[in-house]
Specification:
The protein is mostly helical and 406 residues long. The protein has a two-stranded antiparallel sheet with strand order 1-2. β1 and β2 form a beta hairpin. α3 packs across α4 and α6 packs antiparallel against α7.
């Protein structure tokens, strides 16, 4: 299960983030850096956060559970990276990698340990948290959609093809990601895999159908890349529950349809001046939020689900006597807590990233690889024009051509 979760982070997100025409190396390369740094940094950080709440340091035992939770923590950073994809320098990205896991672990402790709300698939503490954290960073960095070079925001036939491979990799491994932390209970893990499998299959079918209907018989690639996966996000908190198969299919279908129509919200955010580079709200933010809401109502519908909501794999023992109504309220409170900590943490991180210690990227140089990668002329499209900022802060055009083939 750990290898599946790691494959999702490295391969799934890596390929998914090659969609930009001029930021392919930045997308897959910096995604690789986030994985390597995040898997390592999460280990001491968990000991630090534990000491903050417990008042003393304890040695962290490195085992499969800790390695798998590292993947969940890193996944939240990767989701945030999708929001400010192409807008930050490597030093700013390093700052995000240092701070976001800290805020994420604080929120996880609040949700899981203090509120006693289990989230096996990370609908709230991974997906929704990462999406809103990234959007808050964009707001703090004052990234305005209208100021971005329109040419740099385009995709190509091959870049979208690569991103579609990433979506397929994520789709295949998503059931393992949701059940990775429940390997000690094969019965519960089997239920997680089944519910996630049904939901993500339903979201895939629903996304294709919705896209075709909305675009007069044609498919929109950005919707297919994102909405087909929404079932895995929205079922994440509910996947350990005892629900009928048709409920999983229904929830996954709602995720696929809602995520497809979520592209309208993406346009609405742009009109408000809020940038979401990889449309993470479509795939992670809103489906994660609705996953928490659906889990709250599932707790009311069945008392057994209350037990799994309180104590599935994240919490081993409890002496609480909460009612279903109490747990419903705590899940709603967990949604609010995750939103508040994500937005506040993102704003703080974004403001710190604007300090002189972190070199920024000029607006006209965003979403292109040339500032931070050595790119030879043979790697470029013939007669490709790239916007550059000169030393005098005026625009100049640099035309790079490749030699004709012999």
């Amino acid at each position: 299960m750990y290898m599946d979760a790691a494959a999702m982070c490295c391969l799934g997100f890596g390929f998914l983030y090659v969609f930009s025409k001029y930021y392919v190396w930045g997308g897959v390369g910096l995604n690789f850096f986030i994985c390597g740094f995040g898997f390592l940094w999460a280990l001491p950080l968990k000991a630090i956060v534990h000491a903050i709440f417990e008042g003393e340091f304890h040695k962290l035992q490195i085992n499969m559970t800790e390695l798998t939770t590292n993947c969940h923590i890193t996944a939240a950073v990767l989701i945030s990276f999708g929001a400010f994809y192409g807008f930050t320098s490597p030093s700013q990205l390093l700052l995000v990698c240092l701070l976001e896991p800290f805020f994420m672990l604080i929120n996880e402790h609040v949700v899981v340990k203090l509120l006693h709300v289990a989230d096996a698939g990370g609908s709230l503490i991974v997906h929704m948290f990462g999406a809103f954290f990234g959007i808050a960073i964009n707001i703090a960095l004052n990234i305005k959609p209208k100021k971005l070079p329109e040419e740099h925001r385009t995709t190509s036939y091959m870049s979208d093809f690569g991103a579609m491979i990433g979506s397929i990799v994520l789709w295949v491994f998503w059931p393992s990601f949701n059940g990775a932390l429940l390997y000690n209970d094969q019965t519960l893990q089997g239920r997680v895999l089944l519910n996630t499998y049904l939901a993500i299959c339903a979201s895939c079918a629903a996304a294709f159908a919705t896209s075709s209907l909305a675009h007069r018989g044609r498919f929109e690639m950005i919707e297919i890349q994102n909405a087909t996966l929404a079932g895995g996000v929205i079922i994440g908190m509910i996947c350990p529950f005892q629900i009928d198969p048709w409920v999983s299919v229904l929830i996954g279908g709602i995720g696929g349809v809602g995520s497809s129509f979520g592209y309208a919200i993406y346009i609405f955010l742009e009109r408000l001046g809020i940038t979401d580079s990889a449309a993470v709200q479509m795939l992670h933010g809103l489906p994660g939020l609705f996953g928490g809401i659906f889990a709250a109502f599932a707790v009311l519908a069945n008392n057994d689900n209350y037990l799994y909501s309180y104590n599935n794999g994240w919490l081993l023992e409890t002496d609480s006597n909460r009612s279903r109504g109490d747990q419903f309220g705590y899940i709603v409170l967990a949604c609010c807590s995750s939103l508040a900590i994500a937005i506040a943490g993102g704003l703080i991180t974004g403001l710190l990233a604007r300090l002189p210690l972190c070199p920024d990227v000029k607006t006209q140089d965003m979403l292109i690889d040339h500032d931070f990668w050595t790119i030879h002329s043979g790697c470029l499209i013939p007669e490709q024009k790239i916007t550059r900022a000169s030393s005098k802060k005026t625009l100049c055009w640099v035309t790079i051509t490749t030699l004709p083939k012999a």
